[in-house]
Amino acid sequence: MEKHTIVHLIHIIIVGGLFLYVGVTREKISSILYPILLTLGAVIILYHLYKAYNHIKAKESIWISLIHVILVGPLLIYIGYTREKTERKFFEALLMLGFASIGYHGYYLVDSLYQK
């Protein structure tokens, strides 16, 4: 299986599923999930800063990494930090990112299957 296919499947099943779950259940999620979201947000920011640096060196586009550094990572950190006190609009933003992740990666997964 190709690397991109695995990335698409992870984003569709795991990331999209997690974001939808947290976005729908909001304050009712298990308290164990908040530190996971906080840690995941920090890891996403660090990883995508590294990827952006490598893309800049290779003179490639960095827009996907910027989305993760500016939107996804900070949102997860904020929800993980504020826990049950998080305002509804932040859960809704995570819900939108979950749908976007499933849609974007679903499209490219199907597209890659038809290219073969």
Secondary-structure content class: mainly alpha
Number of DSSP E strands: 0
Quick one: biggest sheet? none
Low-confidence stretches: none
Write down the domain tally: 1
* Overall pLDDT metric: 96
Query: Which percent range fits the helix content?
Result: over 70%
* Dominant shape: globular
Q: What is the overall number of helices?
A: 4
Q: Calculate Rg over CA atoms.
A: 15 Å
Strand content: under 5%
Amino-to-carboxy terminus distance = 13 Å
Give, in order, the helices and strands: HHHH
Descriptive terms for the model:
116 residues, mainly alpha
Question: Could you characterize what this model shows?
Answer:
It contains 4 helices and no strands. It has 116 residues and is mainly alpha-helical. The protein has one domain (3-115). The protein is globular and about 45 Å long. The mean pLDDT is 96.
Quick description:
The chain is an all-alpha fold and 116 residues long. The chain is built from four helices and no strands.
What's the layout of helices and strands?
Blueprint lengths: L2 H23 L7 H25 L5 H20 L5 H28 L1
